[in-house]
Amino acid sequence: MNSLLRLLLLACSFSLLARAEEPPAKADDKAIPGHSSNGEAFNEGPRQAAVLMEGTGNVNFPVTTENALAQKFFAQGVGQLHGFWYFEAERSFRQVAFLDPECAMAYWGMAMANINTPKRAADFMKLAVAKKAKASHHEQLWIDAYSKFFADSNADENRRRNALVHALEDVTYEFPDDLEAKAFLVFQLWDNKQHGLPLPSRLAVDALAKEVLAVNPMHPIHHYLIHLWNGADGDKRAVAAAAHCGQSAPAIAHMWHMSGHTFSNLHRYADAAWQQEASARIDHAYMATARIMPEQIHNYAHNNDWLVKNLTYIGRVHDAIDLAKNMIELPRLGPNQSNAYDMGRERLLSTLATYELWDDLIALRDTLYLAPAENPVNETKQLTAFGIAYFQRGDTTHGEEMITALQNQLKKAREERIKAADTAEAKAQADKKSDDQIAKAMADAMRGFAYRLSTAEAAIAEVQLYRALATGRTGEAKPLLAKARDIPSERRARVLFALGDKEGALKMASEASNADTAQVQPLANLAELQWQAKEPDTARATFEKLRKLSSNIDLDMPIFGRLSPIVADLKLPADWRTPMIAANDVGVRPDIKTLGPFRWHPYAAPAWNLPDAHDAMQSLAAYRGRPVLAVFYLGSGCSRCLEQLNVLAPLTQDFSAAGISIVAISRDSPDGLQRTFEKSKDANGFPFPILSDATLEAFKAYRAYDDFEKMPLHGLYLIDGNGQVRWQNISFQPFSDAKWLLGEAKRLLSVPASETKTAAN
Prior knowledge:
57% helix; two-stranded antiparallel sheet; mainly alpha; six-stranded mixed beta sheet; Serine Threonine Protein Phosphatase 5, Tetratricopeptide repeat; Glutaredoxin; single chain; 35 helices
């Protein structure tokens, strides 16, 4: 494992070495700057060289090639496919094609890495078909099986899926020793079920997978077994696979994550959190090495979202908050591309409220972390949490402000509903619809606001309920409690207790705890209420159940602090937690701190020192202490590049007001930079420095370079005053939404530099 991590950390230097040894690519002078000369499918995806890694899965898949290195990269790519590490799998297969352009299976692999992007998959598969004549009969069967599947995505999907299963069965029948055919058949049978096709017997598919494991016990097919048994009370049959999944391909973060599915569904949250934390740490190490943005990684946001949830279940509240905040700090790729950001905000708000960290919640209001939400329902939930927090802390003034804000949310929703109905009516009338059709159109338009309206109404009742409790007006509280539908059961139980309904409170708290006896917060809540209700024996019994789960909890949480009377009664020490008993069915686990950092943090921007049009040298070091937006563009002959520069130019003052300088870096020579200035829409030229990187060394250092076709790519980088890359976009086309980027830059730079450098462990 340690050697694997050293390999990952040194991957960039290996990549540079690999480039030096690679033969030159053939250039196509007619290609649009940044676009691949090999076709549209090659524009997207990884365009930097692959490196051989340890730990991507023990697979054996011989293909027709005389290049031994190409064979190694092919096997690596297949292992990455099994781990759903599609981005890196495509990179490995591109490396195969670079080393041996006639290897038909390289293009098969690229298609397989794009199973979720069928058009690109179909384009790659066409190349595999075109080159299959030189492949073996065995390889031709593989190509034929998937070329038919990808050929026409508009054809009946069920028919195509069933045909693929039959084709993989044919490969397995003719080549019974081909473990990969069996592995991909197991995957396809499961995947077909995910898309609505019947799977009569999971046990039969399990038996097929066991044939693979009988020959290769550490084959990454463990991944598919977890998926196969996931849910429907089948997870207990996947524990053995969960114990080997990450270990079978330790370099692939998703392989560690998958065991978290099994353990979460079995309510073994500490084991699930370990798996998901391992996944997060490996991803964070990989991001720093490969220098890609977090949201480029399949399943990354999902893993960390689930990890935060499981951390709250076991009481690791500080870590849960830290990771949720880190998710919010992550760079978003572009407009409407904010999965991690949205999930992080939801988890942060939920965790703070669940553990009654009202002061912390209030402190985050209007910050990067809990700024007003664009989504009305999310904003309603946020205002609700703030309102409760203020009344819980005795701040009625701000609490009243939150009630008013919620009432305004409700008013706005009602106004928008009427407007939507009017718009629907006008359109239906213009389309000459009947009266019934017009009425239906209006009703449909209004129905879309039902959840938003009901959420706002329930939120107002909930905050008014806490106002009534805070001001001693308990007579108002009971009817408000009935209207406040979204109060979690644990808090509802506490409200019932405060209103004198001890029996109802204990019943609800008990039901909440019994719903999932492995979560620590509901148990602690129940124990406290039982003690307050003068039921010491049941309180002690509940507390002992909590102690068995207590190894991870943060004792400084209010809910645990309020258990001090029970702790004193039992004559326990202040730290009453019990040591964790390690499970014996999780496989051999590495030291988790060796896998990578707990949080994501930006990577250090490579240094550059480049001449301007007058041969005066300018360096990145000169910008130390203030952020800079570095624009790597493909010269004065690139029309899209000039459009990008002319979009940025009018916003230069806005960026400057935000403390951000702009510098453009061109592939042109210093003498050639003048042609760029001549194409400025402003008579005075561009209002930022333009530098020359004619050798492309800076382009390569920033990975704005296609290693396979030996061409520069468009690159845009936000570098903070400490020299860390906070945001980047590397593509075959320039990023042009400068106004969005300005807002995102302000958001990212509001995170203190110390926050992005949190210790690795």
